[in-house]
Amino acid sequence: MQKDDDRLTSRGEEFLQVFKKGAEFTQDLMRENERLRYRLLELEKTPSPGGGDPPAQEVRRLSERIADLEAEKQEILDRIRQVEEENHDFAARYLEIEDENNNLANLYIASYQLHSTLDFCEVLQIITEIIINLIGAEEFAILLLDEKSDELQAVATEGVEREQIPVVRLGKGVIGQVAQSGENHFVSDVDDYQRDFLSPMVCIPLKIKEHVIGVLAIYKLLVQKKEFAPVDYELFTLLAGHAATAIFSSRLYSDSERKLSTIQGFIDLLTK
């Protein structure tokens, strides 16, 4: 990413130099053009020593020179216009990369927060905030897979009640298929999408390597979010991996804490 920034900065400086030189050269051409036109006008007004018209050869030479300068000026103007268009593309690309850098930096901070706690509920809350702030989702659910029953159940939601999200069998419907295949699902047209709890707008598998532990199902975007940008797909992939690891670790920790608490309870009971 740093190489892209350096290359774009260098390209931008090159554009500015070309633009500056082109503008200076165009001004010189225009001054020379004006001088020659004035000279031509003088020749046309000043009679020749013999009392006739000015020498045709001199007039023709000046006219040809003026035509050449006009052509050069037009060429420079075309080049300046081309540089302006390229500079516009450069500026747009620069802003795009700046947005990507900001999003990746935010994701880095968010992933650090994810792995800073082993509390299951806190992990789910952090994931929810990331999805809202970085992805721009308004309604979504996090479903986890129960490997004993092969069912996916919602453990956290935003914008909808958790009871509204149905239990989904592995391999059934969009959610079940994503959990089974481990492949992302995106609708082709965000604007035409109608909310369907069994068929979300976006469904991302939460997986550790190839092991799927659940899915993220998005049903509605925030008002200001009209479509997904290319960087969003990278964020989905990165988020899914970090979220899955954090969820898996926090659940293991919670289970071990419960088992230790149960064992400690038996020990206390036996030693009394």
Automatic annotation (TrEMBL):
Transmembrane segments: none
UniProt KW keywords: Coiled coil
Pfam assignment, any one: GAF_2
Domain GAF: 119-257
Protein's UniProt keywords contain Isomerase: no
Coiled coil stretches, renumbered: 26-100
Name of this protein: GAF domain-containing protein
